[in-house]
Design a protein that fits this description.
By secondary structure, the chain is α+β, with helices and mostly antiparallel strands. It has two domains: about 100 residues, Nuclear Transport Factor 2, Chain: A (Roll), CATH 3.10.450; about 60 residues. The protein is built from five helices and four strands. A four-stranded antiparallel β-sheet has the order 1-2-3-4. Strand 3 and strand 4 form a beta hairpin. Helix 3 packs antiparallel against helix 4 and helix 4 runs antiparallel to helix 5. The longest helix has 29 residues.
C-alpha cells in the first residue's frame, strides 16, 4: 500500500501542469479572436524565450529607416542620371518621408530617456490545443508570440523570423507617427 501511495505521489508531482495565467490567457484570446463559439484552450508549452527593451526596439526601427534611406538615395541618383524624372520625384518623396520618420523616432527615443531601458515586450514559444464544441479541436503545433509587460499581444507568428515585423507598435507614439504620414498621402 505504501509503494502504491509513493508511486501515485511521484506521478502527480512529476505531471506537467499546463501553463496558465495572464500571458497564457492573452495569447489564447489572440489566437481565438475570430472563433465565435465556446472554447477551452490548453497550452502544451508556453516558454519565455527572450525579452526586448525599448532601446533595442528603437535601434531596430532606426536601422530599418536608415537602410531605406540609403536604398532610396541610390535609386534617386540612378533615376536622376537616367533622366527618369517621375521615378526620381517619387523616390525623393519616399526619401523625405523616411528622413522625417527617422528624425521623429530619434526624438521619441530621446524623450523616453532612461525608460528605453525598460522591457518593451517578451517573446514566447507555445503549442497547444483549442477544444471547440462538438469535440472539434484546433491544434497549434509551434507558434511564437510577443507580449508586452501589460499582457498585450503584439504579434503571433509561426516562424520566429516573422515575430518582430510589427513590434515597433510598442513604441509610444509610433503608430500615430505612421498614421500622420498616411494622412499626408
Amino acid at each position: 500500500m505504501m509503494i502504491v501511495a509513493l508511486v501515485a505521489l511521484c506521478v502527480c508531482a512529476c505531471a506537467k501542469k499546463a501553463p496558465e495565467g495572464p500571458v497564457a490567457d492573452a495569447i489564447a484570446a489572440e489566437l481565438m479572436k475570430d472563433v465565435n463559439e465556446p472554447y477551452k484552450f490548453v497550452f502544451e508549452e508556453l516558454t519565455l524565450i527572450d525579452s526586448t527593451t525599448f532601446a533595442t526596439e528603437f535601434a531596430r526601427r532606426i536601422d530599418v529607416y536608415e537602410i531605406q534611406l540609403n536604398q532610396n538615395a541610390e535609386r534617386l541618383e540612378k533615376y536622376t542620371k537616367e533622366g527618369k524624372r517621375k521615378n526620381a520625384e517619387k523616390v525623393f518623396q519616399e526619401y523625405k518621408r523616411g528622413q522625417k520618420i527617422l528624425g521623429e523616432l530619434e526624438a521619441m527615443r530621446d524623450v523616453m530617456g532612461d525608460d528605453t531601458l525598460k522591457v518593451a515586450y517578451y517573446d514566447y514559444a507555445f503549442s497547444g490545443v483549442a477544444k471547440l464544441s462538438k469535440g472539434r479541436k484546433k491544434v497549434f503545433d509551434k507558434g511564437y508570440a510577443t507580449v508586452t509587460p501589460k499582457n498585450r499581444v503584439l504579434t503571433v507568428a509561426g516562424d520566429p523570423k516573422s515575430l518582430h515585423k510589427a513590434t515597433g507598435l510598442v513604441i509610444p507614439g509610433y503608430q500615430e507617427l505612421l498614421d500622420s504620414f498616411k494622412e499626408e498621402e
